[in-house]
Specification:
- The structure holds two protein chains of two kinds.
- Chain A is an all-alpha fold.
- Chain A has helices at 12-33, 41-49, 57-69, 71-74, 89-106, 110-119, 123-146.
- The radius of gyration of chain A is 18 Å and the shape is globular.
- The model of chain A has no long low-confidence stretch (mean pLDDT 94).
- By secondary structure, chain B is mostly helical.
- In chain B, helix 2 (35-42) crosses helix 4.
- Chain B is globular and about 45 Å long.
- Classes of the chains: A mainly alpha, B mainly alpha.
- The interface between A and B is large, with 110 and 124 residues.
Chain lengths: 150, 153
Amino acid sequence: MGRETGAAMIPTDWIWGAVGGLMIGGAAALYLLVNGRIMGASGILGGLADGTGRDTMVERLAFLFGTLAVPPLLVPLYQSVDTRITHNPLIIVIAGLLVGIGTRLANGCTSGHGVCGISRLAPRGIVSTLIYLAAGAVTVLLFRHGLGVI
Amino acid sequence: MARTQGKALDPRNLSAFVAGAIFGSGLLVSGMIDTRKVQGWLDFFGDWDPTLAFVLGGAVLPMILVWRIAERRGVSLLGTPIPARTPPRIDRALLTGSVLFGAGWGLAGLCPGPAMASFAIGGWGGALFFLAMVSGMVTAPTVAGWLSSRTTS
């Protein structure tokens, strides 16, 4: 984390961020061009959770299985992988509920509204992304710098 | 929406599995399953971490081209219509939902994709977040009904 490459002095985190981003874009491209679906994590999972995606259940489960089961196989390539999630169960539960309810009300999250919406210049995706970014920034400001709990 | 419920190993489901695998791996490789890096991106008034901008840029730029190809073709390779553009309606559900989602995202540093990708990596905290998130998704239609009944009555 935070290392710099010798020649270009670009932090390696940024390079791996762009590489991972290209993979995320590639996955969205595959899901759109082959399956004809918008790759939105909250939509794929949410349709399973509330039953609205019953007609496409197997396709959703296949995507979900790939997302859940394959990343752990890459973990041995790293010295350590740590999500560094907070140890406060109350914050975890509240945050999880907010993310679950919010993404379903807004009908999208960082992948659907963010990646797929912005790249299509979809007004709803752009507006949603600006709002959840702002709400996230305000939340970090209040709870990290104000209350000091995250 | 018809004719999508094939056998587990038909091309559609294999493609969905591969897309999910690349998506989750990309989230790991990019560092976005690290909740502190995500919160660092949102921390404009502290030690700001711009990594997420490179992730978003890396994903959005190729997708601009892909959308053009997809919309020109009109159907996917497996014959499913490319989803039509939704009307640009900025309604209360979109605004409220985005605010709630952003608040939860900032609190824990996880959005749905990384929560899925780190489910088996993130220890008890990651699993608890995932369960809470799914519970929220189950509850959401009730909340949406409550919101719309308040606006119409």
